[in-house]
Amino acid sequence: MHCPFCRHPDSRVVDSRTSDDGASIRRRRQCPSCNRRFTTVETASLSVVKRSGATEPFSREKIATGVRKACQGRPVSEDDLALLAQKVEETLRSAGSAEIDAYEIGLAILGPLRDLDEVAYLRFASVYQAFDSLDDFESAIAVLRAEREDAERTPSPEEPGRG
């Protein structure tokens, strides 16, 4: 790491800390030549491999933009979309790979979107999973209903006697 003050080609790390969101590392460095200190922020890059084979940097904004279309007319706020995009990025980073296939991103979106809004989930899934007929919608709705019924039958930790 070059010193930003004297351009010396080396520096030593004085202190390292993980950022609040855990996505980056903040390092305090000191130049051995001029003894001045400076801070660097390091993040692991995450690349998306498109269907065409091209790669591009991962973007939370692209996630929010894609999901925003499915959420049109639904009671979903911009904060909800930002949180969903953050959850998707955390899921993808936890996989430990520097390159993620675009298809995997779509799969990572489906779970949090289903939790956020079932109608938006069906809209997104219908495009993403290329629904061809009403049968595809009916089977997706049947899965959602079965999951909801299972959740209603399972007692929550706050209500141990329910069931």
Report on this structure.
It contains 5 helices and 6 strands, in the order βββββααβααα. It is α+β, with helices and mostly antiparallel strands. It has 2 domains: 12-43, no CATH class; 47-153, no CATH class. Helix 2 (78-94) crosses helix 3 (102-116). The longest helix is centred in the last third of the chain and has 20 residues, at 134-153.
Terminal CA distance reads 60 Å
> Tally the helices: what do you get?
5
What's the alpha carbon Rg, rounded to whole Å?
Answer: 22 Å
Q: How many beta-strand elements?
A: 6
- Measured as a percent range, the helix fraction is 40-55%
Instruction: Report the β-strand fraction as a percent range.
Output: 15-25%
Q: Main sheet? A: 3 strands, antiparallel
pLDDT < 50 stretches: none
The neighbouring-strand order within the major sheet is 1-2-3
In total, the number of domains comes to 2
Which structural class do the helices and strands define?
A: alpha+beta
Q: What is the chain-wise order of helices and strands?
A: EEEEEHHEHHH
The 3D shape can be described as elongated
Give the integer mean of the pLDDT values: 88
Pfam families: ATP-cone, Zn_ribbon_NrdR
InterPro entries: ATP-cone_dom, NrdR-like_N, RNR_NrdR-like
Organism: Cellulomonas oligotrophica
GO molecular function, one term: zinc ion binding
